[in-house]
Design brief:
Layout lengths: L23 E7 L6 H14 L4 E6 L6 H4 L8 H5 L5 H4 L1 E2 L5 E3 L13 H15 L4 E8 L3 H9 L2 E6 L3 H17 L4 E9 L2 H18 L3 E9 L2 H8 L4 H4 L4 H13 L11 H14 L1
Parallel strand pairs: 1-5, 1-6, 2-4, 2-5, 6-7, 7-8
Antiparallel strand pairs: 3-4
Helix pairs in contact: 1-11, 7-8
């Protein structure tokens, strides 16, 4: 997010002067469930941590969170407790594999499917404090086009959309990009093809999305990587482990390692990429002053 209270993300001319290092904030999202979005987040986090990066994950699927389950974590408190005011984000933060940090969400709490503006601001303020100590903040959004999903997706420095070879994945990814482009004025998206049987299949799948987005939405999409369909991923999931942690030499784990290396080389964020990010920047600056 374009936080300004301690400027963990926005690159500014005086950032080096005050000794602060911008935090890279990436929202990982998808148009539909079942494409392995949360698995991507977990493995990207572990891979980044193995490279020496300090990584924080926010499980922003607030009512159906399962990141903690995937990683074998047992939270005592969740974001639900933060939103009702009994705990802070710092108090619910867990340490996961490879030293990553996790902010767990609730599961089966319908009232968290939509946040009020006051709740959004509270999360943003507390998250800014935690993110200031991190190199990378990964936001694991829910799937679909709900207001909470689109809010988190549009407020990050980068939005990475996860797709799979399934035709419905492309249809729903297009719908998500359409909403973010038209309602939040997002102009750029990164795309990761997951569960691909071959590089050629991944290229063809991305090509279909690229053609549709370019023709009808006029926004930029960039293919940033491919994760192969790998039995080791399923084996790791059954053990509630990240494949990058349990089977580091597996094809998928190596692909996540390459993705992590690429992420660290992405250009630092400059201008806000969406209207929500611009609002956060102004709001946080005001609060910080």
């Amino acid at each position: 997010m374009q936080f300004r209270m301690r400027r963990p993300t926005l690159v500014s001319e005086d950032a080096d002067a005050v000794g602060e290092s911008p935090t890279r904030v990436i929202a990982v999202t998808s148009g539909k469930g079942g494409v392995g979005k949360t698995n991507v987040v977990a493995n990207l986090a572990v891979s980044l941590s193995r490279m020496g990066k300090k990584v924080l994950i926010l499980d922003a699927d607030l009512s159906l969170g399962n990141l903690d389950v995937l990683l074998g974590l047992v939270p005592r408190h969740t974001i639900e407790d933060v939103l009702v005011g009994s705990h802070t984000l710092a108090e619910i933060m867990l340490q996961g594999p490879a030293g990553i940090h996790v902010l767990p969400a609730s599961s089966g709490v319908t009232r968290l499917t939509s946040l009020t503006e006051a709740q959004q601001l509270m999360i943003q303020e507390q998250l800014a404090d935690l993110a200031a100590e991190m190199d990378v903040l990964l936001i694991d959004t829910g799937a679909g086009i709900s207001p909470t999903v689109t809010f988190f997706a549009s407020s990050a420095d980068e939005t990475m959309v996860i797709i799979s070879p399934e035709p419905t994945s492309l249809t729903d990814a297009y719908a998500l990009i359409k909403v973010l482009a038209r309602q939040y004025r997002e102009r750029r998206f990164k795309v990761l093809v997951n569960q691909a049987k071959s590089p050629r299949e991944a290229s063809e799948v991305f090509g279909k999305l690229d053609v549709a987005v370019d023709r009808f939405l006029h926004v930029a999409v960039e293919l940033v990587g491919t994760i192969p369909d790998d039995d080791y991923v399923h084996m790791a999931v059954m053990q509630q482990k990240a494949v990058a942690d349990m089977f580091p030499e597996a094809p998928a784990a190596q692909a996540f390692k390459r993705l992590a290396q690429q992420v660290t080389q992405w250009p630092k964020p400059g201008l806000p990429k969406s209207s929500v990010q611009l609002v956060w920047q102004r709001t946080a600056t005001h609060v910080g002053n």
